[in-house]
Write a structure and sequence with these properties.
The chain has about 280 residues and is mostly beta strands. It has helices at about 1-20, 195-200; strands spanning about 35, 45-50, 55-60, 65-70, 75-85, 90-100, 100-105, 110-115, 120-125, 135, 145-155, 155-160, 165-170, 205-210, 215-220, 225-230, 235-240, 250-255, 260-265, 270. The chain has a single domain (about 1-270), classed as Neuraminidase.
C-alpha cells in the first residue's frame, strides 16, 4: 500500500511539473499600459534586464559602449556605466545573473560575464582579465545576423541568433571561470530546430527572456512585432501580437510585479501589466 501511495505521489508530482512547464506566461497580458521614452539613452537601445537585488533596471546600448541603470519606474537615471575594451561594440543584450554579475552578448556571438559593483561607472571587459569570462558561441554565417538576445535562469543560458538562419542556443553556465573559444567545450547545443518551429511566425529574433518557473522561453521579433512562448523542447505555448508602435522591439524582461517589459529602438520602454 505504501509503495502504491509513493508511486501515485510521484505520478502527481510529474504531472504537476509537466503542467507548469506548459503553463503560459504570455496569456496573462494584453495591450501595454505604459510607454516611456528614455531620453538619456536617445538611440540604439538594444537590451534590458531587471536586478531583484537592487530593484533597478539595466539598459544596454549598442555601438556606444554604455549601460544605463534606471530606478524601478524608469523615471530616474541612477548611473551611466562605460564599457571599456569591448571586443565588439555591437552589444545587443544584457542579463542579470545574480550576486552583482551580468552577462552581455554581442553580434560576434560572444558572451561576456562580469561583476558590476554598486556605484561603479566604468567596467573593463577585456577578456584577458581574470574578472571577465568570454564564451564564444557558434559564429553566424553572415555579418550582422548574429546573437541578438541572451537570457538566463536556473544556471541555464539561452541565446537567440537573429536570422539566416534563426537559431536558439542553450548551454549550462560553465563551472570553470576561464574563457571558452570552442562552443563544444562548454556544451552549447540547439534544443530544437528554430527555423522549423518559428517559420511563418517570427521573421527574425531580437530578444529573449527565460521564465525561471516554467523554463519556457519568450522570444521577441521586431520584424513580426510578436512574442512567441516556447517550451524547452520547442513546443509553441502561446503567441502575443504587439502594437506596431513602437516599431522595433529589441529587448524583453520581467519586472518585480510580474510585468512584461519590452524595450524598443530608439529608446522606448513598454510595460505590460498582468491581468489580475
Amino acid at each position: 500500500m505504501k509503495q502504491f501511495i509513493s508511486i501515485f505521489t510521484l505520478g502527481l508530482l510529474f504531472f504537476a511539473q509537466a503542467q507548469r512547464s506548459h503553463a503560459s506566461v504570455l496569456e496573462q497580458f494584453d495591450a501595454p499600459s505604459t510607454n516611456i521614452v528614455l531620453s538619456e539613452v536617445r538611440y540604439n537601445a538594444s537590451g534590458v534586464t531587471f536586478s531583484p537585488d537592487t530593484k533597478t533596471y539595466f539598459v544596454i546600448q549598442n555601438n556606444t559602449g554604455f549601460i544605463f541603470e534606471y530606478d524601478i519606474s524608469f523615471s530616474k537615471l541612477l548611473r551611466k556605466i562605460q564599457m571599456l575594451n569591448l571586443a565588439d561594440d555591437d552589444t545587443e543584450d544584457i542579463v542579470y545573473l545574480g550576486n552583482q554579475e551580468f552577462a552581455i552578448a554581442n553580434e560576434s556571438n560572444q558572451v561576456f560575464i562580469f561583476r558590476l559593483a554598486p556605484g561603479q561607472t566604468r567596467v573593463d571587459l577585456d577578456s584577458a582579465l581574470s574578472s571577465v569570462q568570454m564564451l564564444q558561441l557558434p559564429k553566424a554565417s553572415k555579418k550582422n545576423n548574429g546573437i541578438e538576445g541572451i537570457c538566463y535562469g536556473n544556471n541555464f543560458f539561452y541565446a537567440v541568433q537573429e536570422m539566416k538562419p534563426k537559431k536558439v542556443y542553450r548551454f549550462t553556465r560553465p563551472a570553470s571561470k576561464g574563457d571558452f573559444t570552442n562552443p563544444a567545450l562548454f556544451g552549447v547545443r540547439e534544443p530544437f530546430n528554430t527555423d522549423a518551429v518559428m517559420k511563418h511566425r517570427l521573421s527574425d529574433l531580437s530578444g529573449c527572456y527565460l521564465d525561471p518557473n516554467s523554463m519556457n522561453l519568450l522570444v521577441v521579433s521586431h520584424e513580426s512585432s510578436r512574442i512567441m512562448e516556447v517550451s524547452s523542447a520547442g513546443k509553441i505555448i502561446h503567441m502575443l501580437d504587439l502594437p506596431r508602435f513602437p516599431e522595433q522591439y529589441e529587448g524583453i524582461t520581467r519586472g518585480p510585479e510580474g510585468e512584461l517589459i519590452l524595450l524598443s529602438e530608439p529608446n522606448i520602454i513598454s510595460i505590460y501589466k498582468p491581468r489580475r
